[in-house]
Design brief:
single chain, 53% helix, two-stranded antiparallel sheet, mainly alpha
Length: 384
């Protein structure tokens, strides 16, 4: 009933999954080791895979492949140590300015889930703050040497709900920091920062306090984040597997699911994790994966495992882009779909680009939006 069709997944990915599951008989025959390396990097699973491959017979894994994984493992460990120091530095700086800060990802999450920062990768740091503190937080980061990547275009303050974070980069350190004022972009519903702060947990990684989401809030965040990206990196499902094996208040989880309308994504994520990693789940979780929608949405996500999909690198192939747009609409609840459709009536920055108006009369973009949209759609591209 809950078995997914995984027959089109590359055999190299099946080898990776077999290693992660700790199987004794690994189907190495006829695999492309270069493709396995690429998949391990893409899915951000190479730290754990390195430890698994080291346990294999010497004649099984080519020495060059093992050396490749060893180098990546060592590089990631240094990266996570560096990010650990930055995490502590920023937590202290924000605390001194009385800006509450919740770490969403990074070394503290790796330590929380795996007990070892070297077993999870992180290319940047993601923090959540109250939106009311955003201006002060941006000023602080600039004082610390970070430069804002000002890529967000906005009209009539739509950035507050159409986007959910802004990026800062330290030009000397190369450190990238994403400052979130929401866990997810609209039209999702989510807890207010004050509520999340009350349920926060403290990381045991650093000497100075670093705060994380509470277990139940963290589960919902990781589920919503992974689902929004089609679970295109298996690391997100590995995180879910680690988290649900911890002591979680499932009554509280169910309360949050109902309140914030995200039960569909939870069922999808857990069903994917159980099919790919083949672990036993307790009775508290069974009800989430027994629904028809959980299986349908999980099967939709298999598309991303059958190919190496990178949604963050442009240009995204048109076939993938088209599929992903349909996928995102499918994972929304009925209420979210309605809000999403209605959001098209709200002016976009493109409307301002099409017909620049003085800021004092930007409200006119509301009645003008259908006509501006139609104009852009029907306008013929200029012939060069």
């Amino acid at each position: 009933m809950n078995t997914l069709n995984l027959t089109a997944i590359p055999k190299e990915l099946n080898v990776i999954l077999a290693l992660l599951r700790g199987e004794k008989q690994i189907p190495y025959e006829g695999i492309d080791w270069n493709n396995l390396n690429d998949l391990a990097l893409h899915h951000r699973l190479f730290p754990v895979l390195y430890l698994k491959l080291k346990q294999q017979k010497e004649s099984t894994v080519p020495s060059g492949v093992l050396q490749f994984f060893a180098n990546q493992y060592k590089r990631n460990t240094f990266q996570m140590l560096r990010l650990s120091a930055v995490t502590e530095q920023l937590s202290k700086a924000f605390s001194e300015q009385k800006i509450p800060l919740l770490l969403l990802k990074g070394p503290a999450l790796a330590h929380y889930l795996y007990g070892d920062i070297s077993l999870r990768t992180s290319s940047d740091l993601d923090f959540l703050i109250p939106i009311q503190k955003l201006d002060r937080a941006e000023k602080l980061l600039k004082e610390l040497g970070y430069e804002k990547d000002d890529y967000i275009k906005t009209v009539l303050n739509d950035w507050k709900w159409r986007h959910h974070h802004v990026t800062f980069i330290h030009p000397d350190q190369g450190t990238k920091v994403e400052l979130h004022w929401r866990l997810n972009p609209g039209p999702s519903k989510e807890p207010a920062f004050k509520e999340l702060w009350q349920r926060k947990s403290v990381s045991e990684l650093t000497s100075y306090p670093v705060y994380l989401l509470g277990k139940e809030d963290l589960l919902l965040f990781l589920i919503m984040h992974g689902s929004r990206h089609g679970w295109s990196r298996l690391r997100w499902l590995a995180d879910i597997q680690e988290l649900i094996h911890q002591e979680i208040d499932w009554k509280q989880v169910n309360h949050l699911l109902v309140k914030y309308d995200c039960h569909r994504a939870l069922g999808q994520g857990i069903l994917l994790a159980t099919n790919l990693f083949q672990f036993t789940i307790n009775s508290n979780i069974q009800n989430f994966i027994r629904t028809a929608s959980a299986k349908k949405l999980a099967q939709r996500a298999v598309f991303y495992f059958e190919r190496m999909v990178n949604l963050h690198t442009d240009p995204v192939p048109e076939e993938v882009s088209h599929y992903h747009r349909q996928y995102l609409f499918a994972v929304m609840s009925l209420q979210q779909k309605l809000i999403f459709i209605l959001s098209f009536l709200y002016p976009y920055p493109e409307d301002r680009d099409t017909l620049p108006l003085p800021k004092a009369i930007h409200f006119l973009y509301f009645p003008l939006r259908p006509f501006l949209w139609l104009y852009r759609k029907t306008r013929k591209p200029a012939v060069s």
